[in-house]
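Translate structure to sequence.
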């Protein structure tokens, strides 16, 4: 990492001719083991390493910026149960987001980051129990699940397109698109 940071420093310094301060934010579990200093052949280089898991999640949760609130999932929950902390993060995102589309985007980002802490299943459980957070018409996971369900019905049962649409709770056009995709892949 130290060599990559030296490269970045050189590129930024030569392009902008401004002072460059570099930070690496560590989001892994445990303590980081990477070197942050290179002292070799009379040269010295150093960057700052920030371990986000050392910050209390309430620090991020108190922000009015939803992008910062999302980072709470990577920080230290202290004695708080992960499910409770995730619920608080989701609630705070709802408070700090102005419209439903942006809120859905932040939920997708939160889900991705929750995977880094192996909290994605807990996240999914919380979201499923909070129907108001799911925009089933446009949610990627819901659409993906319906697509797979329709695929299975098309491949394994001899049903009409209308019957499949009725069983899956989708439109006949949706079923036709899946059928065309299956036909193209064969």
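Result:
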């Amino acid at each position: 990492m130290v060599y990559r940071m030296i490269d970045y420093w050189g590129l930024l310094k030569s392009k902008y001719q401004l002072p460059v301060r570099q930070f690496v934010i560590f989001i892994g579990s445990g303590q980081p083991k990477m070197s942050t200093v290179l002292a070799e052949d009379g040269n010295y280089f150093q960057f700052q390493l920030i371990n986000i898991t050392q910050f209390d999640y309430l620090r991020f949760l108190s922000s009015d910026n939803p992008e910062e609130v999302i980072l709470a999932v990577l920080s230290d929950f202290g004695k708080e149960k992960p499910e409770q902390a995730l619920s608080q993060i989701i609630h705070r995102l709802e408070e700090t987001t102005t419209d439903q589309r942006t809120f859905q985007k932040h939920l997708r980002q939160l889900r991705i980051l929750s995977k880094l802490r192996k909290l994605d299943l807990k996240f999914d459980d919380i979201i499923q129990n909070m129907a108001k957070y799911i925009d089933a018409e446009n949610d990627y996971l819901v659409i993906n699940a319906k697509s797979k369900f329709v695929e299975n019905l098309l491949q394994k049962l001899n049903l009409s397109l209308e019957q499949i649409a009725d069983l899956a709770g989708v439109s006949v056009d949706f079923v036709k698109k899946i059928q065309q995709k299956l036909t193209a892949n064969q």
